[in-house]
Specification:
The protein is α/β, with parallel strands linked by helices. It is built from 6 helices and 11 strands. It has 3 domains: 5-70, Histidine-containing Protein, Chain: A; 80-145, Histidine-containing Protein, Chain: A (2-Layer Sandwich); 151-216, Fe-S cluster assembly (FSCA) (GMP Synthetase, Chain A, domain 3). It has helices at 5-18, 45-56, 80-93, 120-131, 151-164, 191-202; strands spanning 27-32, 35-42, 63-70, 102-107, 110-117, 138-141, 144-145, 173-178, 181-188, 209-212, 215-216. Strand 8 and strand 9 form a beta hairpin. Residues 4-72, 79-147, 150-218 form the BON domain. This is Ornithine aminotransferase.
């Protein structure tokens, strides 16, 4: 009976796992109409030939497209699953990021982050952590900030920040919210007060955007 492509794929993967001369962990197997494509990485040319021979031994294989690359132990680890593992580790080591709330997907070096967090800075830290890993060619950050900011909370944070820094007066600052966007308006007495107000607004949970319409009144 003719094997289906999924059966062939299973058999080839099993043969690679059974072959002692091959480390199958970094080898991918795809099958289309009986044609087997081998991809991934091995540590030597000898191992590459052994993988090809193992695949050819499987009954039902019509042809082999061999795309395995030889990578020395000293080379950078750039397989997608290796990149994903390093990103997961970096996120786990970063205290600011709730690791259980972030999902990582890597496809041809491009990282997609999904999940939901309470704070904008957590989403931003996850994006920066992924971008620092070698082998990453780009990051799409789809992590949602689920908690919406409250204008009273933002205002309280601005007042507290002003009081911590030489008892500045935050009375002239007006705060409004639109979804996860915070809008600052009114007047402050110096440029540095604008910066303090912005940083305080960003520190509130749920904020994904701050619009600063503050003016400086000398």
């Amino acid at each position: 009976m003719k094997k289906t492509d999924s059966q062939l794929q299973h058999d080839v993967m099993a043969e690679l796992e059974w072959e002692p001369a091959v480390d199958h962990a970094d080898i991918g197997v795809a099958v289309t109409d009986g044609v087997v494509t081998l991809s991934g990485y091995v540590k030597s040319f000898t191992e590459k030939l052994a993988a090809e021979k193992a695949a050819r031994r499987v009954a039902g294989v019509k042809a082999i497209a061999e795309e395995i690359k030889v990578r020395l132990a000293s080379d950078n680890k750039t397989a997608d699953h290796e990149i994903a593992k390093r990103i997961v580790d970096v996120i786990a080591w970063t205290v600011a990021i709730p690791a259980d709330k972030v999902k990582v997907k890597v496809e041809h070096g491009w990282v997609t982050l999904t999940g939901s967090v309470d704070w904008y800075f957590q989403s931003n830290e996850a994006r920066k952590a992924a971008g620092r890993v070698s082998g990453v060619i780009g990051v799409t950050n789809l992590i949602e900030v689920k908690q919406l900011p409250a204008s009273t909370d933002v205002k309280d944070r601005i007042v507290s920040a002003f009081k911590r820094q030489a008892d500045l007066d935050a009375a002239g600052v007006t705060v409004t919210t639109d979804g996860s966007t915070v809008k600052l308006s009114g007047k402050v007495h110096a440029w540095n007060e604008r910066g303090i107000a912005e940083r305080a607004a960003w520190s509130a949970p749920g904020v994904t955007r701050v619009e600063d319409h503050l003016t400086v009144q000398y």
